Amino acid sequence: MSTHSSETLVVRGACPQDCPDTCAFLYHVEDGKLVEVTGDPDHPMTRGGLCVKLKNFAEHHYNPDRLLHPMKRVGPKGSGMFERISWDEALATIKSKWTDIIAEYGTQAIMPHAYLGHQGTLNGLTAGDAFFNRLGSTVAEKTYCESGSSTAWIMTVGPTGGMDVESLAVSKYIIVWGMNMLNTNLHGWPFVLKAKAAGAKIVVIDPVRTRTAKQADWHIRIRPGTDAALALGMMNVIISEDLYDHDYVEKYTLGFDQLKARAAEFPPERVSDITGIPVVDILTLAREYAGTQRSAIRQGVAVERSPGGGDAVRAITCLPALTGAWRYPGGGTIEMPIWEFPFKFDFMCRPDWIPPGTRVINELDLGAALTGAMPLDPPIKSLFVYNSNPVSQAPGAGTIVEGLQREDLFMVCSELFITDTAKYADILLPATMQAEQLDIMVTWGHLYMHLNQPAIAPPGECVPNVELFRRLAKTMGFTDEHWDLDDWEMLRRCYDWDAPVMKGITLETLKEKGWMRLDVGLPDERTPHATGDFKTPSGKCEFASSLAAGGNFVVPVWRSGYEAMQPGTPVDPVPNYIPSVETMMPDGASAFPINLVSPKPHAFLNTQYANEPTQQRRQGEQIIVIHPIDAGPRSIEQGSYVRVFNDRGAFEARAEVSEDVSPGLMMTNVGHWPGLNRSGTAVNSTTSTRHCNLGQAGTYSDNRVDVQRV
Fold first, then answer.
1. Which of 5, 23, 37, 63 lies in disulfide reach of 46, CB 3.0 to 4.6 Å?
2. Parallel, antiparallel, or unpaired: how do β-strands 704-709 and 82-84 relate?
3. Which backbone phi and psi does 448 adopt, to 5 degrees?
4. Using H for helix, E for strand and C for coil, what is the string for 289-301?
5. What is the pTM of this model?
6. Model confidence over 341-372: pLDDT tens digits?
7. Alpha helices, DSSP H only, in 405-520?
């Protein structure tokens, strides 16, 4: 619904960014221009506040560097030299190039590359799936983050939403595990503070003393990649000291005896050696967690970012069932409540169009796929990038750049700006921003649906992703009904509006109200698994997973709905601690003695807004945080410029010497544009393309480097 004052039109919308908060927006428009974007004060979750990333969101729409028209490359690849062309020429060029490639190599020589640069139902993760499945291209596995966690979660408790973040307000003991909520889940933090004011204890488990850790009652420093060992050590104490809920375990779990045997392998002394956490702290954490109901765990994506990260998520997810925490409002664990939403992925992705036997290439392996390091038949001859910026965000960035420089690679990129990836494109296509398009926002951190309504006209010749793929489909001669549906009809077909959780929610009510909560119980009453009701094959929390028999898998939503050609590598039915490859090397075993972690920044959303001068000032330049013990012998002082390097690559940054990190650990932020950095590179020049044990997720935190003063 829109309302008028004498001068201002207010239109309801929602944040497009890959963030668990999905804030409700109010667009303020005067004379057809977006003049301000504010938070909706009536929204129970986001309560009118916007994070620092969105402080100049209206101005962002008018950034003078926006891509407004189709362009073609006129200089060397990577030069960023383009000239304007028409949409007709752009589409005709794509059709001509693709037709030639298909004739010689087949459709699988074309590969899409996308992630969550936009979080919409129509324009987000799955926006191009139906088109590329209809084309018969290579299926891209989109596992930048959350895929390992998703596989682990579903193996343990099934596709359940789990605990509601708003329920944290009534918790009595809260563990924030591997998440800097004040940077990446800001609107969840007030519920933690409400619980704290009522007497709850707040514990943060994180290798770095983050802004969130500094506000907690207790910060537990853990070595990166050792979370599974800590969770299993907690279980060891809980079981051996008989602190577990016998009744809950007997009625609502599967595989307790196997879990008990595994936990017995992790006495506190061994766990202390692995994690670096004192034995007394491991004992205290286990006893307090098991002995305080209502206990909650807020899991962060960082937990999966190591070779054994999938099993770490499984182990953590077992804890609330072991202690019976699910019985109580404010008890349980939060990973990603997205599974409560009744998506119709078969319509959104159209996996029925995928030709049998179509291959899968993981997006984190893009460099190997483009350079020939991965043997492929046919080779990748065309790459189509949208909603993604792999040169900055993907591991092994140097190899990706090498691959993008291939003269025989035809690359198309749909973008808002000429990013470090887009500058290698042959054809650039202009995309709309959020105030210019219709969508229902996909929400992975709370339980509200949001309708984003267009408030202003798109500038230049920008189009939403959903329209881009309609145009491509018609250009390629596809005549299916799918490409004739308008945006509203697409939204109707993307959800099961008759599902019980959608009681009272329709497109019409969303048009009027902007957002509505799923019918899943009130936060201070909600107990989704008080009597089991897990969405696993057994209906129980599976300490020993029945799905492990099929081997490692990627949840289909991360691979265009495709069920076939799964990794299938063996999976232990019971979670275990899998040591990191680099982090846990003994001293002297590597030429690179320091482990580097690279969490999300405060003022950027991945690379979005990192080209905005205002946000650059808020975030500051690329920095590394280094402990005085590591800085001293290298003559690194506060403010020194340094080169961080390993055998994969290097980048330069300004040093902050601080005890916020431990000796042997450094921290930098991902998200800075390589081309805007001193060295022309960024942190992912140094990261490995190794995968996590579940879900093909990345292992960004398992990264050994050295550092020297520049």
1. 23
2. unpaired
3. -115, 140
4. HHHCCCEEEEECH
5. 0.97
6. 999 999 999 999 999 999 999 999 999 999 99
7. 465-475, 487-494, 507-513
